[in-house]
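Recall that a protein's primary structure is simply its ordered list of amino acids. Everything else, from secondary elements to tertiary packing, is in principle encoded there. The following example makes that idea concrete.
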Amino acid sequence: MEYTAPYTVRLDHCPAPGIYLRWLSPLGAWDGWLFDGDFDDAKMPEAGSVFRPAASAAPQVLQRPGGARQLLRAGDLSPAQHEALTSIMTSPQVFVQAASGRLTPVTVVPVTTGRTSSDTRTTFDVEIELPTPNALTRA
């Protein structure tokens, strides 16, 4: 006989500083990983709206929102861990989970997903794009 019971997973506190990602795996389960290695913040400018006041005047950029991105790194992974992390690249739903449990949807940006550092250990890099902050709401 097999007994099953629902359970709730809650992240009380991060054991180390880092960014905890949750994503929908190909098997339909929610996978997670704490990226506690080095990470880099970046801001990528997007094309802004242009206003041309007269034919002879130079165009003026009215707004240029930037997309905030973070490059996350995980190192010293076994081949099985690396394979499990690569499923994040094709996942339809990826979230950053805060210590409070709040989920923030993010977009995964395609980058090189890993470099072999030896026959048995690898690293994994993933870049995520954070949502544009809304000035009318508070986080």
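The longest strand covers residues 66-77. The chain has one helix and ten strands.
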